[in-house]
Amino acid sequence: MSNNTAHEEPELVQLLTPEGVFTEHPDYPLDIDPEDVRGLYRDLVLVRRVDTEAVALQRQGELGLWASLLGQEAAQIGSGRALRPDDMAFPSYREHGVAWCRGIEPRELLGMFRGVTNGGWDPREHGFHLYTIVIGSQALHATGYAMGVQRDGSVGEDGAAVIAYFGDGATSQGDTNEAFNFAAVNNAPVVFFCQNNQWAISEPLERQSRVPLYKRAAGFGFPGVRVDGNDVLACLAVTRAALNGAREGQGPTLIEAFTYRMGAHTTNDDPSRYRVSAELEEWERKDPILRLRTYLEKEGIADEAFFAEVEAEADQLGERVRHECRTMSDPDPLDIFNEVYAEPNVHIDRQRAEFADYLASFEDSGAEGGR
After folding, report:
1. Where would I find the beta strands (DSSP E) of the chain?
2. Bigger pLDDT: 276 or 14?
């Protein structure tokens, strides 16, 4: 393969240009009313505000770590709003926007990064699995869950589908490629949603793959598509089509949402050490929120009163996030034994009792010392 072939620009599914101009796509029609478009804008703004507050809270010592989604809001909100209530999502650790769409309160995300929760939320209640720190392993979990859905007979137009989220760096992991293979040979109802933000921590995309990532799917025998990850409408349309296809028995799809991580990999990272400012400036001009706002203004779908209302709501949300984070209580030490197994377990019961006695010994020692 020549270098020219390896670096050809692939086709990009785009409904909304960076200038806010809407263009229909023949393969991905989008039937959406003005109220829903305004709702997407609200989602984008509020999720970014949660992210901004979380970064600030980490800098103030209130969180141990935070993985920012800055710049990736459209990919997450678009795909998240394509999910139905019975669908199941398997995130990595940056899918705060998808969590928002699945009804996860910001305090539940912050509690995990603050270290005061042993999980964060009930995956069954929200159709949203717990965050996964091990790179790529959630792709296997999603595939296994999708195979279970398939074997339960919960497929069809009204059935459930599964989606797995991961970044471009995870495509180099064995777990992800094994998941692709299992999903393909089992025709599992799963969508693989890769947010290609072009940096696997400090490794650029060209160090990850010689071909566009969506083309990886062809080697496993299922379709792949690249979508403009900063276009919330395109992400909604493409993900909705892929999920519907999975429901109807068409098997897996790989979606590569081509976007950009405008912030640091996590709050422990300094991106200025490995990328140039001109690159960031280029992508700031493609900002997903600015793009949708321009469209809303051009089409007369929203006025200044609407934008002011969303900003006021964002201010209120920011204040609530700060307050809830700083007032979180530590969990009971014995909570760590809860939900280790689905059913009662004598070994866990014994360990819980032993640990309870151990904790009580400190209280006894304190009482004796005071006499």
Report:
1. 88-90, 162-167, 190-196, 199-200, 203-204, 224-228, 253-258
2. 14
